[in-house]
Amino acid sequence: MALRQISTRHRIGYFGSVCMLIAATALSGCSTTKKPLTTGSIPKLSKPVETMNAPELARAADTIGASYERNPKDRGTGLAYANILMMTGRNTQALAVMQQVAIAHPADREVLSAFGKAQAAAGQLEQALTTIGRAQTPDRPDWRLYSAEGAVLDQLGRSSEARSRYRMALDLKPNDPTILSNLGMSYVLGGDLRTAETYLKSASQQPGADSRVRQNLALVVGLQGRFPEAERIARQELDPQQADANVAYLRSMMSQQNSWKQLAAKDGKSDKSTN
């Protein structure tokens, strides 16, 4: 579709722009592959990190960071700390944390998955693929690892391989909203906004779909010029401060003449050529 002739370097930049909307909602990124952490060593926070604004996230990072410093080998604390560091854009530090956790827990699949995610966030994409591959086992395949692998492959511009991994994940976890959302965002990267919207709408209707999915849907709807509808979606289930931040970000992207509007124009031309 519209972006197929764009280089891998530009695809990665485009992917980063897409992820920024999710960062504005205080969430952890395009690939939502983590499992809940229940270890008692993690400090209790005032509310889930997924609902925190930027100042709250900064305070939470300080709280969990202090616990991590006391015991850097603790699995649960390390995973939680690396995740919140990535949510606040401190990707290099998150990678350093996950390196320590992976050394202490070299055979832990969830640790390896999180390590791969941190590598990808820090720009070490090929290393991330290797790490995620080490975590995956043919006799006990993990859908989260397939989805995480797909997200990295998308960043490398290998969209057909990425979508294959998402579909493998869906074979193991049918209709999972996070996988459907990642698959939809893969089509955003390919410039196929209509297909992307189809998957994201399906994701948003599944039980367990969270605000990350709806913010991705808002982005795709907005990119197609339906901004009032996108704004309604972006404001769902968020407090006013978070909703205003998301809407402001949507508006800023819609005003970027050299990226989003060119994408829409190219997509429109592609549609006409197929009629």
UniProtKB/TrEMBL annotation:
One Pfam family of this chain: TPR_19
Bilayer-crossing regions: 12-29
Ranges for the TPR repeats: 143-176
InterPro entries given in the database record: TMTC_O-mannosyltransferase (IPR052384), TPR-4 (IPR011717), TPR-like_helical_dom_sf (IPR011990), TPR_rpt (IPR019734), UCP035836 (IPR014596)
SMART domains: TPR
Keywords carried by this UniProt record: Membrane, TPR repeat, Transmembrane, Transmembrane helix
Protein name, per record: Pilus assembly protein TadD
